[in-house]
Specification:
CATH superfamily: P-loop containing nucleotide triphosphate hydrolases
Structural class: alpha/beta
Oligomer: single chain
Number of helices: 5
Length: about 210
């Protein structure tokens, strides 16, 4: 069984008295143990919402997220970070409606998270910090975890980092999640190339 299965996941946001959908995110993919997955896409495309849905801090409109064989939205609220944990800059978690008393829900069955989601970590090029971070991501991978690394590239070295450590990629654009097999597939994807723009020019062949 994959470490994580995102199965027919949909999140809709509504506005107005007639509740017209103002934004819809949809995703279906799986992640095996021992993998680093790069996540990219324009601002407002749904990357952070996807991470919140994976960790159970945001409730889906449809579909499910299964981590280590458990639907994370059926796991006790206080134990969901034992399956998947979201490291993000703002430390703000979107409010969501609790649908059941915790004692009626499933236990996580783990003490440490299997899925680690890094939401735009800061990379400093001074004092070996990048090397430290890359070693940390690799250690999590080598321990059998799934690592999602979401980066909003604004320097060519950000792409070099993604090429070096990520085995595959998700490109999120206007609520649609595209699976890309490797870095070459990412840079060949039309929407991703438009998004990355001039950052692609300085890249040297791997």
């Amino acid at each position: 069984m994959p470490a994580i299965v995102v199965d027919g996941l949909v999140k809709r946001y509504y506005r107005g008295m007639r509740r017209r959908a103002s934004f819809t995110l949809s995703a279906t993919f799986a992640g095996e143990r021992g993998q680093i997955i790069g996540v990219l896409g324009p601002n407002g495309s749904g990357k952070t919402t996807l991470f919140e849905l994976i960790t159970g801090s945001n409730a889906p409109s449809e579909g499910r997220v299964v981590v280590d064989g458990r639907d994370i939205h059926g796991v006790r609220y206080g134990e969901r970070d034992r399956l998947a944990i979201h490291y993000h800059q703002s430390y703000q978690v979107r409010a969501f409606r609790k649908t059941k008393p915790a004692f009626m829900m499933e236990r996580a069955g783990r003490t440490r998270p299997l899925v680690h989601l890094f939401d735009e970590p800061q990379f400093s090029i001074q004092d070996g910090y990048v090397g430290f971070m890359l070693d940390f991501f690799r250690r999590l991978r080598d321990e059998g975890n799934v690592v999602f690394l979401c980066v909003h590239p604004n320097e060519p070295f950000h792409l070099e980092i993604l090429r070096e450590v990520c085995g595959r990629f998700l490109f999120v654009n206007r609520g649609t999640v595209a699976e890309l097999a490797d870095f070459d597939a990412l840079t060949a994807h039309e929407s991703a190339r438009t998004y990355l723009g001039s950052l692609l020019q300085p890249l040297q062949p791997a």
